[in-house]
Write a structure and sequence with these properties.
single chain; 246 residues; alpha/beta; Nucleotidyltransferase, domain 5; six-stranded mixed sheet; five-stranded mixed sheet; 6 helices
Length: 246
């Protein structure tokens, strides 16, 4: 069986095909273009669609468009396989955070901290027993830059890039330095604090926004497609459950 995997984020949608033989990455496009990309997604005749989404309007759009004979499975705290959740409001946890945590724990088979950087930067911790214990959420670099631009009179909108210098000689360089280094310091500080609580924890990075930061962070490994690894695990779990159903 084959599965269409969709990661629907606030800014971008990523798609892949999963089969028992492996993953095929398809396309990445802005979430605002989902409506016009639905025909393209429907061209892939798969047995099921597995979705990690943090955009409720996109979920409705997808359900309305896709043929009724193709089952759609939205991953939630109630449907995520394997993981146990030890948090006070599980319904509030983004599916992307759970799916990334599932993939990392499945790979490491021990305690893990997953750092994902997109519109928001998230840190999620799973303990040695496979229990999701919660995490932390920071503004992503783009969001932080937008906030500075929107709430000051003279700071322009800056696209954040890597910058070795700590001090900027003009406003743009100063914003670049402040956002770039503050993100590195904040994440490495968070990693250090988690390691004090759990010295054996494995630190895993993912997300497009983390790619240009990863060499500055205390990561054990980085996987661009971690969420597809997790969605593939979900797809396999659903197929196995269907086989067991009389």
């Amino acid at each position: 069986m084959s599965s269409l995997l969709l990661d629907i984020g606030n800014s971008f949608v990523e798609a892949a095909i999963w089969t028992p033989d492996g993953l095929t990455i398809l396309k990445r496009f802005p979430t605002a273009q989902l409506q016009e990309k639905l025909a393209y997604l429907s061209e892939h005749n798969t047995d099921q669609i597995i979705v990690s989404s943090v955009v409720p309007t996109a979920d409705i759009m997808l359900r309305d468009h896709v043929a009724h004979n193709t089952p759609i499975h939205l991953i939630t705290w109630q449907t995520i396989p394997t993981l146990t959740l030890n948090i006070t409001a599980p319904e509030q946890v983004g599916a992307d955070r759970l799916v990334n945590a599932l993939a990392a724990y499945h790979h490491v088979k021990d305690s893990v901290l997953v750092i994902d950087c997109g519109t928001a930067t998230t840190c999620c911790y799973v303990d040695q027993t496979g229990t999701y214990q919660g995490g932390a959420i920071f503004p992503g670099l783009g969001l932080a830059s937008q906030a500075l631009h929107d709430h000051t009179a003279k700071i322009p909108l800056v696209f954040v890039q890597a910058r070795e210098e700590l001090l900027g000689k003009n406003t743009i360089d100063a914003v670049q330095s402040g956002l770039y280094h503050s993100c590195i310091f904040a994440l490495n500080g968070f990693i250090s604090a988690i390691k004090k609580q759990d010295p054996s924890v494995t630190i895993v990075g993912t997300g497009k926004g983390l790619e240009f930061l990863k060499d500055k962070l205390d990561l054990d490994y980085f996987d661009t497609h971690l969420i597809f690894q997790g969605l593939g695990i979900c797809a396999e779990a659903l197929i196995n459950a269907q086989r067991k159903t009389p």
